[in-house]
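Final paragraph of the annual report: two paired records, presented back to back.
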Amino acid sequence: MNLDEEINRMRGESLGPRYPHVVVQLSGHNGNAGAIMDTVVQALKEAGVSTLDIAAFRAEAYGGDYENLLATVFAWVEVE
């Protein structure tokens, strides 16, 4: 399954993100976990999310495998 297919699958399972006003674009990262994390963390910072919440996001995202990372991203922000 490629990244776009995985994004679409996870979008269907989501109940909505914690920060729906924070929108990130994941296509173009070619599945690179580090690039995805950098993109999301930067967007959270630009939206004024607290450093404590950003640390919680990082801990949750890094707390498992790649699928967990994507699930965490979808739980926290709006993904295009």
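The closing record of the year follows.
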Amino acid sequence: MQITKKFLRSTQSKLPKDGLVKALPNAAAIRRMPDQFHDHVVARVRKDWRYWVFVHIMGHFVHSFEQVVTARNYEDLETTGLEWVANNLSLSQLRKGIKSI
């Protein structure tokens, strides 16, 4: 028990005093959302071909989300994300998306 406590104290002493810095990962290192969505869809359709229906409904929203939502910092991500949800995921907007299939 004493060894564990000593190890924990040693490890905790190496942590930053102000906690972790809140920063988003480097944008260049992150693949675009539509590319990630495409990979997800390909994997899922291989398991169950009926999943393509989901693609027709959600594909538009994925592209719209990427164009509207910005992530310069967490506050910006939260603000633009919530605005996007309010403007694009209302029942009337979802109906428009389904009618366009």
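The mean pLDDT is 80. This concludes the annual technical report; the extension proposal builds directly on these records.
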